[in-house]
From TrEMBL:
This is Methionine aminopeptidase. Its EC number is 3.4.11.18. Monomer. It comes from Virgisporangium aliadipatigenens. Keywords: Aminopeptidase, Hydrolase, Metal-binding, Protease. HAMAP family: MetAP_1. A divalent metal cation 2 binds at residues 111, 174, 207, 238. CDD domains: MetAP1. It catalyses: Release of N-terminal amino acids, preferentially methionine, from peptides and arylamides. Belongs to the peptidase M24A family. Methionine aminopeptidase type 1 subfamily. It comes from the Bacteria. It is an enzyme of class 3 (hydrolase). It holds the Pfam family Peptidase_M24.
Amino acid sequence: MIELKSAEEIDRMAVTGRFVGELLAELSGVAAVGVNLMDIEHHARRRIKERGAVSCYWDYSPSFGRGPFRNVLCLSVNDAVLHGLPHDYVLRDGDLVSIDMAVTIDGWSADSALSFIVGTPDPADVKLIEATEVALEAAIAAAKPGGRLGDISAAIGAVAHSYGYSVNNEFGGHGIGRTMHEAPHVANNGRAGRGMKLDPGLTIAVEPWLCRTTDKIKYDADGWTIRSADGSRTAHSEHTVAITPAGARVLTLRPTPGDASAAPAGKPATAS
């Protein structure tokens, strides 16, 4: 069942989304050469607790994975692209890191992800990350009221293919609102004009992810971490988006560098 949210409910989701966006931006600054992934995980745990938020990942038990997920972040490095388990790994120069997180505040959820490079960037990695970001932008632009879900999927696929990448459709975006995963599924490739109608009030997480030289994946022994089948590098970008009468509203925007209006994650902005 798909629940359309009211304007007030979308505003409440936006409160959660702002926190998610701010914390992701903060975590990308914490990540650096020489930093342990577990330090990033524990930093996020502290911030989430301070805010009074609840991680959507903790104790998550889908059909895949081995046992409940007992972390608040998915931290995926290099050839790992989705559901990476935080573990004792010290970041090295040139590592490509993807951070994915979802939390609930006052009963409303938001989910977002970003990829970045620590230390010296490889141009091929920069291109890969850019492709996911441009695909996400195209998907958001296609998320128009009265359109079709396939418009979003087709926009993602078109960008991926224009960059020379193939698309894996086993995992994609999803509805979100009172819980992290709701209907509908949002595929990362598809045909425009097909699928359910995009009505105002629909809230979805849109998340293009790509592997550099394959569209095949494999799982680590932990049952969670998903990697490119050929060991090539990967990237992942995601925002929570609401369909409104005026168009798509991104609920998980991250503060831009130098944005004085952005408060540190977990703290309210003060009036000037």
